[in-house]
């Protein structure tokens, strides 16, 4: 039997308690339900009790800020009941308390792991979990060019890249962070796994992008964001195996959507349970990152200390995150 606590952080803080008989994959199922309810997960703690039960503690924030209403609370419980089915025995909401205010304070990270997770470039020759897979090599062939000859008031930005989940999101968040305005855009359907996008853009002051250095900087930034929108590594954390996923935070402070759900789905498909998970912010390479840390349960069919197995886990998680 599993006991799942979910602490919901909104204008009113709650703890959600769900008892379930699914001892291994409840984290993935609950994550899917919370994502559909627009409830963002801040941190997860999974604890195995002496009697064989598992306690899942979810800290989440209501994006709609309506959880103080009875209707929203009932909707949350009903949705989780529907997803978990017969394995869900009961649901209950409780106040969380002030001790959970600093949930984005992430545990310390070694300099070696941080360098691996936040490095700006990838090398085919490096024997490490971030080494380029065939799909990522295709991403490296992305074409980003600018043209000022077709419009008197806008710069044409042309992008040709292998399609992946979040393709438009990565481009739009990058342009937004660079204070670039979009006047008109057109994108093609996927052809042979690739997508083309034409955008007529200009500076925030309404002027075209005519400076060659600024054009090159923008194109390079877009190529980097499309090549490397998510970082995935697996390493040791003391005696345990830890999976880390990092993604840049927008200047507005928002993180990438659905990362937690995609990672838990990938691990579930591999038959790997999560012992604990946390989400926090980390500053590196002159920007802020959202970092997801998962301690993996060693009681699975994989030898998590095996480097080949670890690379397979990283590849599976990355492919799910990229929609491949």
From TrEMBL:
Matching Pfam families: ACT_ACR9_3rd (PF24931), ACT_ACR9_C (PF24926)
Keyword Repeat tagged: yes
PROSITE patterns in the record: ACT (PS51671)
Domain ACT span(s) in chain numbering: 15-98
This protein's record includes keyword Nucleotide-binding: no
Keyword tags: Repeat
InterPro entries according to UniProt: ACR1-12, ACT_ACR9/10_C, ACT_dom
GO molecular function term, any single one: amino acid binding
UniProt function note: Binds amino acids.
UniProt name for this protein: ACT domain-containing protein ACR
Phylogenetic lineage: Eukaryota, Viridiplantae, Streptophyta, Embryophyta, Tracheophyta
């Amino acid at each position: 039997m599993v006991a799942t606590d979910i602490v919901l952080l909104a204008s009113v803080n709650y703890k959600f308690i769900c008892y379930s008989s699914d001892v291994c994959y409840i984290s993935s199922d609950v994550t899917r339900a919370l994502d559909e309810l627009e409830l963002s997960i801040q941190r997860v703690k999974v604890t195995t009790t002496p009697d064989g039960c598992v306690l899942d503690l979810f800290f989440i924030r209501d994006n709609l800020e309506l959880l103080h209403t009875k209707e929203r609370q009932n909707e949350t419980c009903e949705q989780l009941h529907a997803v978990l089915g017969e394995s869900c025995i009961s649901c209950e909401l409780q106040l969380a308390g002030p001790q959970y205010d600093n949930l984005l304070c992430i545990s310390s990270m070694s300099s070696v792991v941080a360098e691996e997770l936040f490095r700006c470039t990838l090398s085919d020759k490096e024997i490490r979990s971030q080494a380029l897979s065939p799909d990522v090599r295709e991403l490296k062939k992305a074409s980003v060019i600018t043209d000022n000859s077709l419009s008197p008031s806008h710069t044409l930005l042309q992008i040709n890249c292998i399609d992946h989940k979040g393709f438009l999101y990565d481009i739009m968040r990058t342009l937004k962070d660079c204070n670039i305005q979009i006047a008109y855009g057109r994108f093609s359907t996927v052809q042979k796994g690739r997508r083309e996008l034409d955008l007529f853009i200009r500076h925030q002051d309404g002027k075209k992008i005519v400076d060659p250095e600024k054009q090159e900087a923008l194109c390079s930034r877009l190529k980097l964001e499309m090549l490397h929108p998510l970082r995935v590594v697996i390493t040791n954390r003391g005696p345990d195996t830890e999976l880390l996923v990092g993604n840049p935070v927008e200047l507005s402070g928002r993180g990438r959507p659905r990362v937690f759900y995609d990672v838990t789905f990938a691990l579930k498909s591999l038959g790997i349970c999560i012992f604990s998970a946390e989400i926090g912010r980390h500053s590196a390479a002159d920007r802020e990152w959202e970092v997801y840390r998962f301690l993996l349960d060693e009681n699975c069919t994989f030898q998590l200390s095996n480097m080949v197995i670890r690379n397979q886990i990283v590849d599976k998680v990355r492919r799910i995150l990229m929609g491949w």
